[in-house]
Specification:
The complex is a heterodimer of chains A (117) and B (115). By secondary structure, chain A is mainly β. In chain A, 0% of the residues lie in helices and 52% in strands. The model of chain A has no long low-confidence stretch (mean pLDDT 92). Classes of the chains: A mainly beta (117), B mainly beta (115).
């Protein structure tokens, strides 16, 4: 069964430093997509970055990059130059294709990031 | 105007009350979802609607009753809730068929407290 694991319940990082949030996944499908969402204290889930299983390069979006290691089934989120506004819960999620389109996302348990001044 | 709007943002209700949560999306999506997010627990998918038809109900108690009158609106009717139902209820929408980096668009959620 598909599964997303985030082993870090909470993380601290100093402002302006980089931080890596871990995510591992389990799937038997060769086609899948991986997502990271940010959830500030306001509650809304905000899409950050996407990585497709066949993408040759790691995805990047501004200060966010995804360290995709397919053989290890890991998709870690790297936030460079942390800002106080990065303090939030971060969720990793996966979508499988299973031979056809699907609209089901499976989420991890999240990592609470606190950026310290 | 945000893509997915949820109302109310906060709700306090007694265990004997009946209330409804509303979700509206203006993105032209044809799938909508209800998630429950409790403290220190993972996101729980409650219901999935594709083209207004319910396609998934993850063993949700009958005191939660969803309604999807059209692809743009989703309701969650609540009655005789328990204190353990206190949580953040998130609505999301997407296309039924996700391709590429298509994912979900979430609303800001309704923080529900049952007293």
């Amino acid at each position: 069964a598909q599964k997303i694991t985030q082993t870090q319940p909470g993380m601290f990082v100093q402002e302006k430093e980089a931080v890596t949030l871990d995510c591992t996944y389990d799937t038997s499908d060769p086609s899948y997509g991986l997502f990271w969402y940010k959830q500030p204290s306001s509650g809304e889930m905000i899409f950050l970055i996407y990585q497709g299983s066949y993408d040759q390069q790691n995805a990047t979006e501004g200060r966010y990059s995804l360290n995709f290691q397919k053989a290890r089934k890991s998709a870690n989120l790297v936030i460079s130059a942390s800002q106080l506004g990065d303090s939030a819960m971060y969720f990793c999620a996966m979508r499988e294709w299973r031979g056809g389109a699907t609209n089901k996302l499976i989420f991890g348990t999240g990592t609470l990031l606190a950026v310290q001044p | 105007e945000t893509g997915v709007t949820q109302t109310p943002r906060h709700l306090v209700m007694g265990m004997t009350n009946k209330k409804s949560l509303k979700c509206e999306q203006h993105l032209g999506h044809n799938a909508m979802y209800w998630y429950k997010q409790s403290a220190k627990k993972p996101l729980e998918l409650m219901f999935v609607y594709n083209f207004k038809e319910q396609t998934e109900n993850n063993s949700v108690p009958s005191r939660f009753s969803p309604e999807c009158p059209n692809s743009s609106h989703l309701f969650l009717h609540l009655h005789t809730l328990q204190p353990e139902d206190s949580a953040l209820y998130l609505c999301a929408s997407s296309q039924v068929e996700l391709t590429g980096e298509d994912g979900y668009t979430f609303g800001s959620g309704t923080r529900l407290t049952v007293v």
